[in-house]
Amino acid sequence: MDAAYLFARNFRNTNYEKLPADIIDITKKQVLDYFAVALGGANKPGVKELVELAVEWGGASQSSIISWGYKVPTPNAAQINATMAHTLDYDDVHETAIMHPGVIAIPTAISMAEYIGGISGKEFITAVALGTDFICRLGLATRPGESIIPYGWHQTSLYGYVTSAAIAGRLLGLNEEGIVNAIGIAYHQSAGNAQCVKDGALTKRMGPGFAVRGGITSALMAQKGITGAKNCLEGDAGFYKVYHDNKYSKETLIGDLGFRFEGKNVSIKPYPCCRGIHPFIDAASKIVNEHDIKPEDVDNIVLWCGPGTLNLLCAPIEVKTRPRNFVDSQFSAPWGVAAIVARRRAGLQEFTPEAIKSSDLLEVACKISVEVDPSFEGAELEPGRVRITLKDGRAYTEQVDLPLGTPSNPLSFEDCERKFYDCINEAEKVIPEENAEKLVKKIKELENVNDVNELVELVVWD
């Protein structure tokens, strides 16, 4: 039996009461975090243009575009709601699976909940937790013992189609066969590559949106009776054969399915940039704060990274220290360190089109060089080591293996709440204070919400 059937059965039969308490807690953090980054990114480049297109296309008024308030066909609304949440590169991440589960699971569930109506907080939490588990298992099982980065896939998008389809199928009440069909239809569309990162293209932030639009469409097609490939994950022309030369671990994929939930290993980001940069930011922060480092006193800075981190976040050095655009800065370990040394923070204001032109950041960035430490290879999240040498000859070195936000060093709900307010205060269109307070309270007590549309009503306003 193809694993697609096992996952469909799990989506169909798992209820809220089967979820461990820690999964319920992290799921609520994910939901608050989603609204933080979505509201913060609602007016960013790429999102505005998608909104314009959706309004031009028109269609049934089914689901809301967060912040903007337009109601459009559900797949189109979900696409935009996912895209805006990925613009800041601040959304949650599963470091080992190398993907962002919340930006797929949550906008799918939100848009579908509005389309269907009457979806309770408990059902919403369950759908998001199952979707998070599914997409993370898909990534974890891929090419065991290898780094997936050199193959060029954008994991979140690639696995997001089938994940979104399964979540939407669950919420629609499809039976096991229907969810299998939805997953199969979504597999026929699955795509996503990392060239956009290398080129600093806006399509990086649009990958999750493509996936959720395709996934929701797949579930709606399955509801109409359209069939998809049944052996779509493990078949002769299934997902792992076509995309990964059949190199996957079945035990990792389905082991303890329904009992072990990968949501427990999701990290909430404290900084708005690629998660691989965070060890460097934490290391630099420790040096700067403990030794009261001033940027004008710095002679040079050396970063040691692992082989996997090098190509994504540290090379070519001329791009990483002088970003061509703000997408480059979001994928630059040198830039994150420069922000800490120059400003003692690495927040939203340090990763903008304006920031990459700022002399204070550029002056520090040009003092940074990179070396590779082969011993870092193989870690779930490669460590970051930073050495700052001052003009008077003093040098300080710090290495961070597990940065803030990891499951072993997690953000609390209150930390996520502070991040939420930081994000909405930076937004071009600020949510009314009363709405923001109600939203946080409802998410904290999400299991008691009768209809998730109560949340949606708070994030669309005049």
Automatic annotation (TrEMBL):
Gene3D superfamilies: 2-methylcitrate dehydratase PrpD. Residues 8-246 form the MmgE/PrpD N-terminal domain. One of its GO terms (molecular function) is lyase activity. Residues 271-440 form the MmgE/PrpD C-terminal domain. Pfam families: MmgE_PrpD_C, MmgE_PrpD_N. Belongs to the PrpD family. This is Uncharacterized protein involved in propionate catabolism. It comes from Pelotomaculum thermopropionicum (strain DSM 13744 / JCM 10971 / SI).
